[in-house]
Amino acid sequence: MQLAKATLIVEEMGATIADMEEALSTFQEEEQKRKRNSMRTKSEGGHHSKDHGVLGLFRKGHHHESSHLGVPESGSAESPSSSDLLKRMATALEQLKHQHSALNKTFHSYPTIDTNVSSTVGSPLPSTAEEDDEVHTPTTAGPGQKRMSAFSSHSDGSVWYDAPEYNGPEEYLLDVTPPAEEGQQNNLFHTNSRLTDRTDVTDATEAGSSTGMDTDSESEESAEQNLTEEPTVVHRRTSLPSGPVGDEGSLFAVLKKNVGKDLSKVALPVTFNEPLTMLQKAAEELEYHDLLSRAAQSQDPVERICYVAAFAVSTYANTKHRTGRKGFNPMLGETFEEVRMHFIAEKVCHNPVIMAWHAQGEGWELYATSSGKTKFWGKSMEIIPQGTLHLKLGEEHFEWNRPSSFIRNLMMGTKYLEHIGKMVIKNTSRGDSCTLEFKEGGYWGPTNVVSGIVNSSSGEVLANLEGKWDEQMARKLDSSHLHVLWRITPFPKNAMQYYGFTAFGITLNEITPDLEGKLPPTDSRYRPDVRALENGDLEAAEREKQRLEDLQRDRRNKGQECNPRWFKQVGDEWLYQGGYWEQRQRGWTDIEPLW
């Protein structure tokens, strides 16, 4: 409402400024006439004509009431004097000042304005809004932010700038942060420990009830104590202790020696790794989980599946600056948690390598069983994801599989990742679906392009999507307007110095104060080889990696391998059986470390 009020005030100010400019021009003309005709007496008709010509400027039919700027419509007996015109101009200027003051008060409660994703589609033709000369950096909003939208437009004094590499119509949306959230950055770098504990308790209770388990009274009492703790703000790091150290080596040379083998079983030097495990990389893909909350809140089934599709595309955004380094292979029984989206992952099988994970938030639940295969194609390597992703939004169930990813330029040139193929998102409850096509880039054409079509259960086209997996996804409203569903959060300026990580990825291996004493000894953050590589100590990383592999091999030979604790196998999939967050409240006294 206040934005609409501000827009009206801006229009009034523009009209007033125009009146002042025209009055000033007329005033100058009158002065010149008076100098030439100072001794002549003007006729009554002339007075009326000039009165209409000069003073009519202030009787323009604006949508606001502005007639008080001028004089009565009847002609005057005398020509307007210099003092009269000056008084009218002073009156107009005074009103302009009042309007400017009102505008400042209107925007006083909005400290930041960023272009971003809207939580609702709203009307396809909202009113346009003018932007200052400053170009705002788009951000992904946290759940507490309010949202308003306006389509892009430009006038003589206002031009929108955004996404220079993306041509075509685009919707620009205003993201307004309430004063209470000032200084926070999308919940990626700040965590309220009290809210975290509250989420843990609530979701733990729901998870327990869904699997026939009840939370005992001891956990409830502990939860109540945690809820009474004073909230603390967690400041997350914005860089790694060290960037890549040493030569990455030739991946092509390693692949050539292992032609025909499953590369997931080939031991690679630590220089081919990045300081994250595969469990942490799975969590990294859920950076834009707020899209699922928006999907859950939407009452429009077409809009809902569009947000689900945008989320599915956003899971690839973190690979924009990756060069093909792989994550560390987890130990059997290794886990990783991320409280920001209530994420828990565990390696459940060693041969073949299978990981299972589960996450949930406001109105949504997401889980998957993840594994993969690789193929060597000479100049590139194909990574073929296996396993279905499942999403529950209330009573609706969505599922989809991921297309292949390719590491290009293995022999020479700069390596990069490219995702190619089709992804079909099915709503198994309603029957509608969304087919996304990740297109292969050419030498001269655009790269990383994704297009999509939403179909009803009968095959009718309900919506069209377009965008890039490393930029944004939008829904086409018509030939001239788009509804931006998701836009990538800008990478840190030093991203290329730290393995091409996103700001979110940089925080995944950090042990923040709110996690101290709450992580199980099996959590990936405690892996010594990953920590050594993160600190830039290659020798220690290689030594620890070999030691952990020997320990796992020794446990296997003795028949003492760790059994999956938090997931159980149901057919070909591993499902979360609950208990992790309840155990987190009680402590990890019965959990043995893996290293």
Features:
595 residues; alpha+beta; 21 strands
Topology:
Elements: H1 2-36, H2 44-55, H3 82-107, E1 113-115, E2 146-151, E3 171-176, H4 193-210, H5 217-227, H6 251-257, E4 273-277, H7 278-284, H8 290-297, H9 301-314, E5 326-328, E6 335-338, E7 343-349, E8 354-361, E9 364-376, E10 381-386, E11 389-393, E12 396-400, E13 404-408, E14 416-427, E15 433-438, E16 449-455, E17 461-468, E18 472-476, E19 482-487, H10 503-506, H11 528-534, H12 538-557, E20 567-570, E21 573-576, H13 580-586
Parallel strand pairs: 4-5
Antiparallel strand pairs: 1-3, 2-3, 6-7, 7-8, 8-9, 9-10, 9-11, 10-13, 11-12, 12-14, 13-14, 14-15, 15-16, 16-17, 17-18, 18-19, 20-21
**Strand residue content:** 15-25%
Q: Tally of extended strands?
A: 21
Arithmetic mean pLDDT: 76
Distance between the termini: 58 Å
Which class of secondary structure composition applies to the elements? alpha+beta
DSSP helical segment count: 13
Shape assignment? elongated
Helix content: 25-40%
Instruction: For the largest sheet, list the strands in their spatial order.
Output: 9-10-13-14-12-11
Indicate the low-confidence ranges by residue numbers. Answer: 42-79, 108-221, 223-230
Largest sheet: 6 strands, antiparallel, barrel
Computed CA radius of gyration, to the nearest angstrom: 31 Å
